[in-house]
């Protein structure tokens, strides 16, 4: 009974909840660590140990339907999406072994650490170009739209080989698909569906072009990737996979960097601490993911009746693994409600998943965030939140990101940079 009553308080799209969901998560961990949320017809899993149990056990907890919209899409919307090849099956994220094993191996062949390392000079160059343009303008900007999102889209489209001329369209298509996880009127849903359908058609044409004329980009490498005994990726698989890589690469990177800057500038001493000791940048990134996870959580589905956290779950139960809650679990993180760039075990967070579904682009995302923060510390050391700036969050079940981040900069507080 306690579980059901507490689950009624899960209102993740309401402004007051979006502003600060963490007291509710803390109460879940104390009182009902596995509890049913009737509004969404799924179970909330809030403790670190229970989330880890699920992430380690692909046999009892399937990843199918991981990103299926929480409410069935209207038939009018599906009539637009299906002819374009859209499904709610997202490769890598929504696969179980052995299909996941094959796909992960093929992606690993093409998207390896050597490729990520080779991107560092270009990422540094892009960061410098964007920051120089900003610095030449007024010393005030809305950082998400003017810096963070364009940078993340530049990184991902260059990696995949998508043309720079398509970046604005791709950003809009990603925004359209995000709306599938938010209750919206049918007319708006239909407009979003047309954008998602256009994105699938665009990617199909692009993949077929690369199949005929390979180049030095990730799409071409994925087309050419082979593993012993496994068939290569076909066009449908690669279109769906490219959509995942674009969406996850852009959205997660944007969310991470925007959230990092928000907390580094909001918490007294954090930005100055990085400015004096830039070796802390990497740990500050991990602490950001722990403290305010850019990905709130992920879905799993039970494959048979199980016991989890003292709660009996039937076969077919949908679970929402709350990374954002697990990452503040006091059983693992002492004073978990405190943002601390010196935290020794920040890297134990679950914000990028764990096990076979650990984020395939984690190393690239970390590198992008690190080089961007280092560039900001060098070029805009006096960065600060604009006076009176109040951060609000976009209503989304899976992703957490500020709507905007108004900042100012100048010489105030600048000093030497230590490396």
TrEMBL record:
Q: Which branch of life, at top level?
A: Bacteria
By its UniProt entry, which InterPro entries does this protein fall under?
A: Cyt_P450 (IPR001128), Cyt_P450_B (IPR002397), Cyt_P450_sf (IPR036396)
Record carries keyword Ribonucleoprotein: no
Q: Which Pfam families match?
A: p450
Q: Which Gene3D superfamilies match?
A: Cytochrome P450
Indicate what this protein is called per its UniProt record: Cytochrome
What family name appears in the similarity comment? Answer: Belongs to the cytochrome P450 family.
- The answer to whether the entry has keyword Iron is yes
Origin organism of this chain? Cystobacter ferrugineus
Q: Name one GO molecular function term.
A: heme binding
> Which key words are in the record?
Heme, Iron, Metal-binding, Monooxygenase, Oxidoreductase
